[in-house]
Amino acid sequence: MRIQVDKDRCMGAGMCALTVPGVFTQDDDGLSEVLPGREDGAGEPLVHEAVRACPVQAITVEET
């Protein structure tokens, strides 16, 4: 899978970083981002829960 965060939509709620801290973090502006090297999700089972938890649907997961 490939994970992306749309920074134009992100409002910095941080639900993704709370749900899967091994995949998501927040940058200096408080916006969510995928940790370097974790764009493939590395099989994290909670990634889809983080997508659902995002209040503005800023996270997309593309199955590869």
From TrEMBL:
Ferredoxins are iron-sulfur proteins that transfer electrons in a wide variety of metabolic reactions. Its cofactor is [3Fe-4S] cluster. It comes from the Bacteria. Residues 1-29 form the 4Fe-4S ferredoxin-type domain. The keyword Transport applies. Transmembrane segments: none annotated. One of its GO terms (molecular function) is electron transfer activity. The lineage of its organism: Bacteria, Bacillati, Actinomycetota, Actinomycetes, Kitasatosporales. Keywords: 3Fe-4S, Electron transport, Iron, Iron-sulfur, Metal-binding, Transport. This is Ferredoxin. InterPro entries: 3Fe4S_ferredoxin, 4Fe4S_Fe-S-bd, Fe-S_cluster_ET.
